[in-house]
Amino acid sequence: MSMYVVGHKIPDSDSICGAIALAYLKNQINEPAIPTRLGEISPETQFILDKFGFEAPELKLSYAGEDVYIVDHTEKTQAPDDIDQARIVGVVDHHKLGDLTSSAPLECWIRPVGCSNTIIKMMYDFYNVEIPKNIAGIMMCAILSDTVIFKSPTCTTADIKCVEALAEIAGIDDPKELGMEMFRVKSAVADTPIRDLVMRDFKDFNMNGNLVGIGQLEVIDLAVFDDIKADLATDIAKLKTEGNRHSVFLLLTDIMKEGSEMLIASDDANLVEQAYGEKPADGKVWLDGVLSRKKQVVPPLQDAFQKV
């Protein structure tokens, strides 16, 4: 019986590339595995898959009665809806521990690094499995994406060394330039429906019993949002109501200026000032130096919710 290797809902490049890379590794060590996904492929991820010749993993939403290996999260809100009826056999993640549980012992590879694919590279090394050229390429791109081409405060020496090793395997002479190509793809927002943009990289979190959604759009220049920022703000307010959420936040991240403008739809906007020490105005606030949702946005916001 094969296990299914799957990332989080609204998958990013780390979730998709990680599922492919981990499933290949598992098959090489005689643990049959199938990569799957829980949502549509983002433009950046499609660019990566096309460049290295991969089809998107199978879209599979139900896992009841199946063996599941989770990639890039441990949050029930980000897992398959029927995850409680599945058997979780393993986890690879680089985030805080969430609320997923298992009924039996499981394999866990959790490290404080910038990307799940960095950990998967460590797994290849541990099992002494050679990484194919095309898989090395997608793993490298996932790390470049998650670490914002090494600019993110989540980036570690391990991430940089893994990119260097994977680039050599993949035959990529200038991984940083490839990373900029990826972010240029991310920055192309023209003619994209507003809801699609809001949901492009969106995650729900349980914060002290409150459902909180946080989206992020990483671009080279925030000017691409000038004509649609009001529409984005309107849509996150709608999304908050539709999902019965306490709050929805959308980070518009400028990777060159190294900061984020946060758009806010919340039952209590004062939480933003409590979390980040910056007072919002007109439903938004600039957070200088903030690039990482995982490290710089979620933890202080969770602390603020704990005081509610």
TrEMBL record:
Protein name (Swiss-Prot/TrEMBL): inorganic diphosphatase
UniProt KW keywords: Hydrolase, Manganese, Metal-binding
Reaction(s) catalysed (UniProt annotation): diphosphate + H2O = 2 phosphate + H(+)
Cofactors, names only: Mn(2+)
Keyword flag Metal-binding: yes
UniProt keyword annotation of tRNA-binding present: no
One Pfam family from the record: DHH
Organism: Pseudoalteromonas nigrifaciens
Family matches, as InterPro entries: DDH_dom, DHH_sf, DHHA2, DHHA2_dom_sf
Domain DHHA2, residue spans: 179-305
GO MF term list: inorganic diphosphate phosphatase activity; metal ion binding
EC number from the UniProt entry: 3.6.1.1
